[in-house]
Amino acid sequence: MKPEIIEALALELTKATIADTNPQTINFKSADLWVKTYLESEKQIKEAVAKANPPAVDVSDIPIFGR
User: Fold this and answer.
1) Which of 10, 32, 50, 58 could join 42 in a cystine, given CB atoms 3.0 to 4.6 angstroms apart?
2) Host domain of residue 47
3) d(Cα 53, Cα 48) in Å, to the nearest integer?
4) For the residues 32-47, what does the mean pLDDT come to?
5) What pLDDT score was predicted for residue 67?
6) Is residue 35 part of a domain?
7) Cα-based distances in Å from 61 to 8, 35, 47, 49, 64
8) Is residue 39 one of the residues assigned to a domain?
């Protein structure tokens, strides 16, 4: 997946996560909140991408086809 798509998804997840948070318990204007939430969102997106697209197995790694 292109980095630009991952960034866009992470930003949307960040906005949704912050929107779902109780405004009385956080400061929406806190840069730390936005950065931490974005980084966590980006991590979640990358983990989901990795899970959905496992690395291809080299046929030579399979004992039957190995040398």
Assistant:
1) 10
2) 3-51
3) 9
4) 97
5) 52
6) yes
7) 36, 41, 24, 23, 9
8) yes
DSSP per position, the chain = --HHHHHHHHHHHHHHHHHTS-TTTS-TT-HHHHHHHHHHHHHHHHHHHHHHSPPPPPGGGSTTT--
For residues 38 and 11, the answer to whether their CB atoms sit within 8 Å is yes
> What is the token pair recorded at 63?
């004992």
- The reply to whether 61 falls in a domain is no
pLDDT, tens digit, 9 for 90 and up, residues 11-21: 999 999 999 99
d(CA 46, CA 1) in angstroms, rounded, equals 9
What is the count of structural domains for the chain?
A: 1
Q: Which amino acid is at 15?
A: K
Distance CA 50, CA 42 (A): 12
